[in-house]
Each structure stands twice: as structure tokens, then as C-alpha cells.
Specification:
Structural class: mainly alpha
Oligomer: single chain
Distance between the termini: 40 Å
Number of helices: 19
CATH architecture of one domain: Up-down Bundle
Radius of gyration: 42 Å
Order of helices and strands: HEEHHEHEHHEHHHHHHHHHHHHH
Largest sheet: 5 strands, mixed
Length: about 625
């Protein structure tokens, strides 16, 4: 297997275009790898590095189909070509199925080419053919060849290289970003002690998620564009490009983008929760300061200050001091108005965190990918979703009630304020409570919307399972009809009338089979559409389509043969009956010789036909 190299590491070498994957394919759908040798000496080390890099790109499935390698030796010497072919044996022996060496028109010196590749086939592990450029189309369709071999496939090496660089940069950044975000999000689920430890640690990821997502989206739309516009200006060349699904770029980018979006959303929520936590902690600290002061120094001060002064000046001084304490009180009191309420409203805070947890649970369920095994599993999941939604509803209701209690307490708040006017401060608190409630309401709304989407997806999955099941059923029915045709539809009738009835029956029987086959095809079409809508690339109709087509082919061959035999039988009976009708007594004397011969020929033909099986075992 070939290690995943990075293009940036060998960029100057890749720019030389010592080898390339144009995106063309041979007749077995294997990729075509081109090695355009040039007049100056090619460094085998650089060529080997290029090949290593290129072979790290296609999927395993794709490599398993084998490569066709075109070695363009038109501008090169024979010994270099020979070295390259022998080198292929070390770099990619198992994956090469054919090597086409394109030879120059004036051909190399006969003496050197007697090194015969075909003798070497066992040692090399692949077949090598020498071919002139204009004969290449015997092995590869022109639309799969680039223009230097007279084909119509468009390939732009620099464009390909730039796309690879963007793709690798995005893959690298998004993968490392995903790890970091997942780490941060997982940590958030841990115990309180872990949270306290990690809140000190930096939670900023090393790449900016917005930028990485942006790059990914741009890359994806570039790749999709290439797919749709590939054929323009290519002289009708295929719309396939070497960055297409086959070489894994597009699905991989989509998958990375999806995971990244999901983790980034969770990460944003984690950040919001953290900032809320730190605000609450700050408020608690302030409240404790006030409480400690009131219990300690404050009480002490009031207890010790009983003196009323022994002169006007002393009294005035004490009065002033008392007022200072009082004003200090009310400043602290005003400042701590909200925190005191927060202590009062512990119940509400509890409620809020419960509501948050419920929502997080629901959100987690919605973000998790779902691949249920069957209809029953889906029903189960749907039921689960509805329950979660109900509990969120309940939590929100209880939050509303607690909030209301808190708002009522606010209106009787003046007792805390040492007679100062706190209406301004109060207004802020009331607004804050309202905004928290609204925020929760909105979050619930968002979850509900997501539940609707998920519900729809689930119902589509139910449909998908049903279609798949029914398509399989159609194949079975068709198999049963074929069976009946082979085993029980054998009689050809004893006279023309009976044969005619059998022909009619056969026609109806074929109609039934035809509609069964069409039904199966429609169901499979529906599963394709549903799979696209559900974006579930992993599912495919499996072997149902080939099975359907195979049974149908066997059925049509068999039913055509049956039709033919019945028609021959009908012709035979009709001819025979005609002779018997015209001359029952004087058969020997009067009969028309030609009519006799016709009956005989048809009869013999039918007998010959009946010695052959209706359908050969391989269908």
C-alpha cells in the first residue's frame, strides 16, 4: 500500500508532470496512468516519488480494478523505456494490468528491442505491448485519451495540482480542527473537577473554524462545478475529472464538512455555557462579600457605635460617619440587588440548568447520525424523540412558573434597599429574566424544527425499507413465474383450436410477468431517489437490480421459445387439418403433393425444436 504523501513536500517534482492520472479509464474501468517521457534524462527517483504520490490518491476499490499504464517513449531512448517498465514492477506490480509503450515512428534499433517483454510476462506480473500512437485506440476509447494521443479528454496538470493543494490543506486543517473541537466538547461532558481544570486551559482551537469551513465550501463547489462543466470545450470529452468521486475527493470533502459543522455547533454551545458559568461564579463571589461584611465588620461597627458625642462637633462627626456607613451599605446593597435575587432564585437557576440539560439531550440525539436497521427500529427512535420533546415542554413550563414567582418577588423588593429607590436596578433584573425565558423558548423552537426534519427523514427511511422489501418480492414473483413457465407450460395442443387457446393464455401470462418486472424497476428507481434525498450513499439496492434483470432475461428467452413452438404447432395442425378436410376418403389419389410436403417439413422442424432444451442452464 502507498503511504499518504503530501503534495507540498514534493511540489517541484509534481510540477514536472513526470506522470499523471488524467481521469481517463480503460475498458475495464481501470484508471489510466500516463508517463510522458521526454528527451532529457528522467530521474528515476523523482518518477518513483511521483508515482508513489499518485497511487496514494485512488480508493482501494478503484485500485483493485488495475491500472493501464501508457509509457510515451516517442521522445525517449529505448533503454530508458526499459528501465521505467522494469521499475513499474517494484512500484505497483499488483495493480498494473497492462502497459502500453508508445513507440516512435522510426522505431528503435532492432538489436536493443529483442529484449522481449512478452517472454517476461510471468516475471513482470503484467503484460507489455509496443504500439504506435495511432493504434492506441484499439485498447482505449478515444474519449478516454488525452490529446497527445489523439484523444478528446481534457486534462490541465496545473489546475489539478492547485486543487490537490487546496484539498490537502483543507483535509489537514479540518481533521486536526475536528480532533481539537471533539476533545473540547467531550471534556465538557466530564465531571465538575475536570471542567474546573480545563476552564483554566485555553479552549481556542488552533485554526479558525469559520475560515476552514469557508475553504471547504469553496472547494466543494469547485469540484461540483468541474463535474457539470467538464464536458464543455472538450470536444464532447467526458465530464469526468481526476478529482471526481472515483478519486475520493468529493465525498470526503462533504463528510468532513458535515462532521466539522456538527462539532463546531456543539463547541459554540460549550462556549456559551462556560461564559454563563463564569458570570454566575462572579456574582456569587460578590454576594458572599456583602454577606460577610454584613455579618462581620458591619454588625460589629453598629454594635460599638452607641456614643452620641459630647459636643456638637463630635455629634456631627459621628453622624457623618454613620451616614458614610449607611451609604456604603446601600451602594453594596444596590450592587448586590441582582445577586441577592439570584440567591433567592436558586430554584429558578436549577430549573434553567435542567431545561438546558433536556435541550442538550434532545440536541445530542438530533446530531447523532442515524442508521436504523428496520422499520421497527425507526418507530422506536420516533417514539424516543417525541418523549424527549415532551420532557423539554415540561421543563419549559416549570421554568415559566418559577420565573413568574421570581418576578413577583421583585415587586416586593424594596425591603432590601434601605429605603433607596431601586426601580432602575429592578427594571434591569426583570428584563434579564424575560430575556432568559425568551432565549429558552427560542432554543426549544429550534429543537422542534430539527425534530420535524428528523421525523421526515425517518418516514422516508420507512418508505425506503418498504421499497427495498417490495422490490425483492417482485424478483421472487418473477422467479416463480419463470419456474411455472419451465415446468408446467409444456403442452402444445392436440389441434389448431387448442393451440390457439394456449397461445392466448401464453400472451396473458407474459403480460403478467412484464408488469411484475416493470413494478420491480419502478421500486428500485424509487429507492435510488429516496437514497439521494436521504444522502445515504452507503446503501445501494445491492444485488436486487442484477437479480431482477437476470430473471427477466431468462424469462424472455424462455417465453419467446414457448411462443415460437406454439406458433409452429399451430402451423402444423392447420396444414394437416386442411388436407384431412379436403380429401378424407380419397387421400391417396387426390392430394396435392405440396400440401403434404409442407405438413411434413413443419412437423419435422417442430420435432427437432423439441429435442433442444427450452433454455440453456446458463440462461
Amino acid at each position: 500500500s502507498h503511504s499518504k504523501m503530501e503534495a507540498t513536500k514534493i511540489l517541484p517534482v509534481l510540477k514536472k508532470k513526470l506522470a499523471f492520472l488524467s481521469g481517463g479509464k480503460d475498458r475495464r474501468s481501470g484508471l489510466i496512468l500516463t508517463i510522458p517521457l521526454c528527451t532529457e534524462q528522467t530521474s528515476m527517483e523523482e518518477l518513483s516519488a511521483t508515482l508513489d504520490y499518485l497511487l496514494g490518491i485512488p480508493s482501494e476499490k478503484c485500485k483493485a480494478r488495475g491500472f493501464t499504464v501508457i509509457v510515451d517513449g516517442r521522445k525517449s531512448q529505448w533503454n530508458i523505456v526499459k528501465t521505467v517498465v522494469l521499475m513499474l514492477q517494484n512500484v505497483i506490480p499488483a495493480e498494473v494490468s497492462l502497459v502500453c509503450v508508445v513507440k516512435p515512428d522510426e522505431f528503435w534499433d532492432k538489436k536493443v528491442t529483442h529484449f522481449c517483454f512478452w517472454k517476461e510476462k510471468d516475471r513482470l506480473g503484467f503484460e507489455v505491448i509496443l504500439v504506435s500512437a495511432n493504434k492506441l485506440t484499439r485498447y482505449i476509447e478515444p474519449c478516454q485519451l488525452t490529446d497527445e494521443f489523439g484523444g478528446s479528454l481534457v486534462y490541465d496538470h496545473l489546475d489539478w495540482l492547485n486543487k490537490r493543494l487546496v484539498f490537502e490543506k483543507f483535509t489537514k486543517e479540518s481533521t486536526s480542527l475536528l480532533d481539537e473541537l471533539t476533545g473540547i466538547n467531550e471534556n465538557e461532558k466530564g465531571s465538575q473537577a475536570e471542567k474546573d481544570r480545563s476552564s483554566e486551559s485555553n479552549i481556542l482551537p488552533s485554526f479558525d473554524p469559520e475560515t476552514v469551513l469557508q475553504t471547504g465550501h469553496e472547494l466543494l463547489s469547485e469540484l461540483q462545478q468541474r463535474r457539470f462543466n467538464g464536458s464543455e470545450g472538450g470536444g464532447g470529452g467526458t465530464a469526468w475529472s481526476p478529482m471526481d468521486d472515483e478519486l475520493l475527493a468529493q465525498p470526503q470533502v462533504m463528510k468532513l464538512l458535515d462532521s466539522l459543522r456538527e462539532q463546531y455547533t456543539k463547541y459554540q454551545e460549550v462556549c456559551r455555557q462556560r461564559s454563563k458559568r463564569s458570570q454566575l461564579e462572579e456574582i456569587q463571589t460578590k454576594v458572599m462579600q456583602v454577606v460577610n461584611w454584613l455579618e462581620g465588620p458591619g454588625t460589629e461597627q453598629l454594635r460599638t457605635q452607641w456614643g452620641i458625642g459630647d459636643s456638637i462637633r463630635a455629634s456631627q462627626a459621628l453622624q457623618q460617619k454613620h451616614e458614610e456607613i449607611e451609604s456604603q451599605h446601600s451602594v453594596i446593597s444596590l450592587k448586590s440587588c441582582e445577586p441577592l435575587l439570584k440567591l433567592l432564585s436558586d430554584a429558578t437557576v436549577m430549573c434553567l440548568s435542567q431545561m438546558s440539560q433536556q435541550l442538550d439531550g434532545l440536541l445530542g440525539m438530533l446530531c447523532a447520525d442515524v442508521a436504523p436497521a428496520d422499520g421497527a427500529a425507526i418507530q422506536q427512535t420516533l417514539k424516543h424523540l417525541e418523549e424527549k420533546l415532551k420532557s423539554v415542554e415540561g421543563a419549559l413550563q416549570s421554568l415559566r412558573e418559577k420565573g413568574q414567582v421570581l418576578l413577583d418577588q421583585m415587586s416586593t423588593q424594596t425591603s432590601f434597599s434601605y429605603g433607596k429607590d431601586v426601580s432602575i436596578e429592578n427594571k434591569e433584573n426583570i428584563d434579564h429574566i424575560h430575556s432568559v425565558m425568551e432565549d429558552m423558548q427560542l432554543r426549544k423552537q429550534r429543537c422542534e424544527d430539527m425534530v420535524d426534519v428528523r421525523r421526515l427523514k425517518m418516514l422516508q427511511m420507512v418508505q425506503l425499507f418498504k421499497c427495498e422489501e417490495d422490490a425483492s418480492q417482485a424478483v421472487e414473483w418473477l422467479g416463480e413465474l419463470l419456474d411455472a413457465l419451465l415446468k408446467t407450460h409444456i403442452r402444445l395442443g392436440d389441434d389448431s383450436q387448442e393451440t390457439k387457446v394456449l397461445l392466448e393464455k401464453h400472451k396473458k401470462f407474459v403480460d403478467v410477468a412484464q408488469s411484475t418486472y416493470d413494478y420491480g424497476r419502478q421500486l428500485l428507481q424509487a429507492t435510488v431517489v429516496l437514497c439521494q434525498s436521504l444522502r445515504c450513499t452507503t446503501r445501494s439496492s445491492g444485488d436486487t437490480l442484477p437479480r431482477l434483470n437476470r430473471v427477466w432475461k431468462q424469462f424472455t428467452v424462455t417465453s419467446d421459445e414457448r411462443q415460437h413452438r406454439l406458433e409452429m404447432a399451430s402451423a402444423f395442425h392447420t396444414a394437416a387439418e386442411k388436407i384431412l378436410r379436403e380429401s378424407p376418403e380419397l387421400a391417396e389419389l387426390m392430394v396435392d403433393v405440396e400440401a403434404y410436403e409442407e405438413v411434413e417439413t413443419v412437423g419435422k422442424g417442430l420435432l427437432d425444436r423439441l429435442t433442444v432444451p427450452v433454455i440453456f442452464p446458463d440462461g
